[in-house]
Amino acid sequence: QVQLVESGGGLVQAGDSLRLSCAASGRTFSSYAMGWFRQAPGKEREFVAAISWNGGTTSYADSVKGRFTISRDIAKKSVYLQMNSLKPEDTAVYYCAADREGSRWYPPAAFSSAYDYWGQGTQVTVSS
Questions:
Q1: Three-state SS for 51?
Q2: 94-111, pLDDT tens digit by residue?
Q3: Which residue, of 67, 83, 89, 120, is most buried by count of CB atoms within 10 Å of its CB?
């Protein structure tokens, strides 16, 4: 089993930057894809970004392209989301997720049902 713990959320102003971290523990393989999703109050959970641990391929939601960057450190079993030029509409709870069969998807999956493990979420609030 894989456990995921997010950190790095907080309250920032529009235009600021923030880096989220997701630490994985338990059984993991380089073929696991990792993703970030977010959910705002009253809204559906939406895809943000994903990365393949075996290929380094990334994918992003159109709403964050050019502003967010997903990366990973395989040795540290961690994945990161660097968020720049934050906007109020980025306000949400951000969740880290792992896909055991991520090697099937290139680019990695942008749909939540592909992911098997989820973190508890970290709140990101962007004020105007």
A1: strand
A2: 999 999 888 888 889 999
A3: 83
